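Page header: ASSEMBLY MODEL / two components / 517 residues total.
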Amino acid sequence: MSFKLLSTKKHHLSHEITDKRVFENRRKIIKAAAGTVIASLIPAGVKAETKKYADVPVGPYSASLVSTDYEDVKNYTNYYEFTTNKTDSTVLARALKTSPWSVTVAGEAENTGVFNLEDILKSNPLEERVYRFRCVEAWSMVVPWIGFPLANMLKRFKPTSKAKYVEFTTLYNPDIMIGQRGNVLEWPYVEGLRIDEAMHPLSFMATGMYDDELPAQNGAPLRLVVPWKYGFKSIKAIVKIRFTQTMPATAWNKAGPDEYGFYSNVNPDVPHPRWSQSRERVLGASIFTPKRKTEIFNGYGAEVASLYAGMDLKKYF
Amino acid sequence: MSKNYWRLIKTSVFLFFLMPFLGLIFDAIYDQLGANPIETLHFTLGDWALRFLCLGLAITPVRKIFKQNWLSRFRRMIGLYAFFYASMHFLVFIVLDLSLSWEALVDEVPKSPYILMGLLTYLLLIPLAMTSTNAMQKRLGKKWLSLHKLVYVAGTTAVIHYLWLVKTIDGEPIFYASLMFILLSYRLFNYFKARWRLSA
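Prediction written out in full:
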């Protein structure tokens, strides 16, 4: 790695170029040298050309947010299917094969069956959404996702009037997902939304981020993004979507019913039983920057508060 | 063995135990603390405080079972290292995590039983560190031993602090809780054995 660092420097010194990309590339290599060995060793120039979704247009709800550093988003993930360690997941998730991939659609809908991810992606035009992401562990980041509105996809399956909830299931494969060999959670991971939440224009299905494909540890090839809820609602590596009449039993709710509610809307006024939710550590800020005050619905109250009109949010947490 | 020999060994061990701390400083300078540097500092220092607490509590059982009396020469240093890492852990919490904000402290600490348990652990360690000198040991006499039994309570609250913090209980918190249970059971076993002998 030190060889690469030297050669990069030498090359650019001889041409007397020190543009921003070179600087960033050098910085990445230095970062990678001591941390986990990551794909960032590929020179930035090569990387820029291979960015799969560079031309995807920016969608609504993305204004005025500055994205967190890509390296931080890539190397700080909760993916208990692999490990409870947020950096080891980067390496362990590489074993996951995300192509070919299919999604089973079942339950209260007319158009059920098994769908190839390629076909799903073809029929749903991609856009970019820059969203806040707030983890229940009281840290947050801003991620430019690539994907499509969840409603667009769900409508194609023609849910019936009986469909009151949507249940999502993560891949179960303990051979690859070695965390599933233990029982830190009940596998496979299940998440769910009320149908009106799922159909809300903010609810998003991501297949990429930062103009590129999703890294495995960030939920490739298909993950949910519900920006007004705690991060664990945004289920990764989805293989099944089921429309149900009753509220799905979700993984974290089963693990701790008093700690993780079905709704799990970001709410600074409802503390987790074991810690406060009033503030969050913003990733990427200097270590002397105080935590940011958490906003109700993670700052998306204007868009989603009406979904919960008349509901006691302390009871339905 | 000569005095100089022990001095050399002790200095080496002292420097060795300082390495996790120096490693963190090095990582901080070279921007290698990861995506959440405060958490890395905070958790790593907490881990080391707990490790030194376990190590300190392991000295007596290991010394007695394997008849290695020289081990007791390191007990005070290990105990003070536990206090040092706990102090750094506490400082990172107050200065970096809470940014010295009274408002943040009032907002967050009362809602977090695990933080209260951590603070209690730290409070228990303070009198032990303060009475660790030879002079204090002499002055307190028999009371010194009774006072330093507080470390058993601190060991218990430390593992509870860890168990209450994690989202799902697996690997590491279970490892430390089990280790602490074994180390404290040894004392409990000896205590009852002694009592039984007295009454028999």
